[in-house]
Amino acid sequence: VIRYALACEQGHEFESWFAGSDAYEKQRKRRLVACPSCGSTKIDKLLMAPQVKRTDRQKGAPSAPPASPAPASAEAAGASENTPIAIMSEQEREIRTKLRELRELVTRNADYVGQKFAEEARRMHYGELEHRSIYGEASPEEAKALNEEGIEFHPLPILPDERN
Ligand SMILES: [Zn+2]
To answer: Regarding beta strands 13-18 and 43-48, do their DSSP bridges make them parallel or antiparallel, or are they unpaired?
Structure first.
């Protein structure tokens, strides 16, 4: 005796017992195997369950349903839009507050020079401009160049909720 997990053309899944694989094929071709849900006789095997003799099994033992593809994870969708988050201890929250204060202090007392940061920093370093506090943006290449020229600068702390 063999048990097949079957599905009709409409996708209804069901199981049926046959004397053997030949018997299954014969019955299917003669349209004797019908979907219990819609009566369709266009049937295909989903998978072959392990061949068992009924006497080997505990009667009434539920059989595992046919394996179905895992549904697309909801977490995977839109993962790129996730925001980094964390559960922080008291100490970590204090550091975060200090970072915010530092950032506010710097930005309040310094001139914003935007993309011209590297240029401005370099001119100050070489005495073309009077020294003052500035902040702005620099590409990794610019930051590397400034560093190699010995121009001191500090990355501004960016807090997770301040991403642009
Ligand atoms: Zn059906």
So the answer is: unpaired
pLDDT, tens digit, for every residue of 142-156?
999 999 999 988 888
For ligand 1, the distance from its centroid to the CA atom of residue 148, given in whole angstroms, is: 72
Both tokens of 129, joined, read 């401009």
Structural tokens at position 123: 């001119």
Closest CA to 158 of 134, 135, 141: 135
Query: pTM of this prediction?
Result: 0.43
The three-class DSSP label of residue 100 is helix
Cα 58 from chain centre: 42
pLDDT in tens, 27-48: 999 999 999 999 999 999 886 5
Rounded to the nearest whole angstrom, what is the distance from the C-alpha of residue 36 to the centroid of ligand 1? 7
